[in-house]
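dumping this here before i forget
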Amino acid sequence: MCALAGPECSDADGTLAVDAHALPDLAGALGSTLLHWSQTLDAESLRVLSAITADRVFASCRNYSRLMLATPIVRRNRLQALQRYPNQLAHVLISPHHSYDLQGGSKHAWRLHDPALQTAVDEGGNLLAALAQACQVDKSVFKATALHENWPTLALSRVNLLQVLQGMPPIVRPADSNALVQAQALWQWLRRHDLTDADTLRAVGSGFLAKGIAPVLAKLQKREDEGTFSWADLDDFVGQIYRWENLYGVTQAGDTSPERAVLGAWIRHRGLWDLHKASARWHAALPDLLAQRRFTVLQVTHTLQSPVRQLRLAVPGGDWQAELLETAEALRAEGAEMKHCVATYWGECVEEGSRIFSVRALACVSRVTAQYQLQRVQADYVYLLVQVRGYRNRPPEPAAMAAAGLLCDALNAPDAVAMRQALGCALQTLQQRRQAVDRQQADGYWGAEPLLDATSLAHLRQLT
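structure:
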């Protein structure tokens, strides 16, 4: 190998020249060296690092070195802790990587620094007590067998998920991480609404999940099959709660309540199941609520303009037809036929620049409702696809998403730049006029009583 570095091995231009006959000897020597090196590695450390590697990589040189640089006693304590509670301690004792990366790997590695917890591990102290204190839960939570596995990535953080498990009766806490994965839609909903308060999360566990995760999921699946539930339905109802909170929500001290405060209070005092029931009641009452809805003169007389009003969309598997819902009545009809609350979006169409289309397959009954929002991007105004919803807020099929994407391209076509600019300028003028009006005194979309049934309004007033 030394011969490779000698000047006699270089060409006249300085490039490295290698004798082909020396390559087998070089490969043999390198292979022998690697074999000898691998035999010196600590098998137990390699086994543990490989065992806890899942959707995050822990079997790396960085983590192996971190373990081997510790004293034998500390290394033993760390390995035992990693095997016992990999999900709670792997991110503290070693670094998870997004993937194997020989270049720039440090950019994809991070470690949760918790000196008190690491000290408890290194000193062989009461690990259960240290975990309970660090996570602010009872020691009994860590007896759930699911906590002895390294979870896959979930929508809810470990700390927040532990609070949910704290609220659940011990006998129904999950036996393995599969149950946690199956409840991903619930974790996503909690995260989407930024519900991180410990008491609120524990209320989800003690109330909504009181009988365990599997029975709840089975119940929700049955309702979804019947068309009486979806998480998107619940989001629509919660959106009206937020609107009410922004206008009227006050705490007992008289201060304006922070965002999400009323939603958290509802879950703590009435329960997440009750919120589901309130959402179903609200959706059932929606046609009557819409019939009583008052609009501003601008909203009643306004005619929506759009770069596209009707368009045939060529999608593999069959063409689709898009049609602009240009009046409040058109939105009401779409909502009635599709069993969702698109009718509540008329104010956004008039005063916020949204455009909503009914998009249908010509060869079958497939149909979705697609919303696009006009936004300024650098010097241009463009339409962004906000959401696509099927019957009863069900997720759209791939062909429907393809059609919605083609419609978005048509709305942003180069020959429609002038119209988008005009609509954007008109929207900016309208927003300036709106800001000059006291929202609580305005008679219309921005200041009228939120679109909620009397029972829900009564509950909200009790919670503030």
